[in-house]
Specification:
This protein is an alpha+beta fold. Helix content is about 30%, strand content about 35%. The protein is built from 5 helices and 10 strands. A hairpin with a 2-residue loop joins strand 4 and strand 5 (about 55-65). The radius of gyration is 19 Å and the shape is globular.
Length: about 220
């Protein structure tokens, strides 16, 4: 009888979790699942989806036309991702890159970054970021949490990041061997100065989320 009750409760909690999830179509054919409906900030050429709960802060920035089409063929993606990541760091947070990894979804490469930062009540200090360039559009996916939730941080991050689905997307496959870094076109990083405009609003967003959650 106890086993039956335990299984029933487990099923109910699982069902509640599934029902609570919200699949968001970030762009046609690009879907990401949030724990609950996120808020949306839609500005010219950029959309920001964000949601916070007791487990942390979930967000996705879509930067449209982040890279001009004529530069895609010779783009050094690992260098591009690392440069974007470094440009979005706020020095005052004293973050340390713990691990960087890479993978692909439907032959589209992405880069993952895991950092820890100085303790601050206004900013989560365990941070995960995924960058994926789909065509000329850049998707910046974040999951941030506090050390108090560290035991579940990787599990929550995996659930969120792995919920990204690409459906009926027509993008030329990325072939690393086709790029020779010594002969590749030199990248004009000044064309990505929009990144610096993200840092201020992004930090303010997380500070606001933290304060709201702390006061709830």
């Amino acid at each position: 009888m106890r086993i039956y009750i335990a299984l029933l409760l487990s099923t109910l909690f699982s069902s509640h979790f599934i029902v609570a999830q919200q699949v968001i179509e970030i762009n046609p054919g690009v879907k990401l699942t949030f724990p609950s409906p996120p808020s949306l900030l839609d500005t010219l050429g950029q959309r920001v989806y964000d949601y916070s709960d007791a487990n942390g802060y979930y967000a996705c920035i879509l930067k449209m036309n982040a890279v001009s089409v004529d530069k895609l063929a010779n783009l050094d993606r690992p260098k591009f991702y690392k440069t974007i990541f470094e440009s979005m760091q706020d020095p005052s947070h004293q973050c340390r890159l713990v691990n960087q990894s890479s993978g692909s979804i439907s032959d589209v490469p992405f880069a993952d970054f895991y950092s820890t930062c100085k303790p601050d009540p206004d900013f989560p200090d365990v941070r995960f970021k995924r960058l994926i360039l789909l065509g000329s559009d850049l998707y910046i996916i974040d999951y941030w949490t506090y050390q108090s939730n560290a035991s579940k941080s990787h599990e929550n991050k995996d659930l969120f990041f792995n919920s990204l689905k690409l459906e009926n997307i027509s993008v030329a496959p990325f072939i690393p061997s086709a790029i020779n870094s010594s002969n590749s076109q030199k990248i004009d990083w000044s064309s990505y100065t929009w990144v610096f405009g993200i840092i201020g609003p992004w930090s303010s967003f997380f500070s606001s989320c933290a304060r709201n959650q702390r006061n709830s």
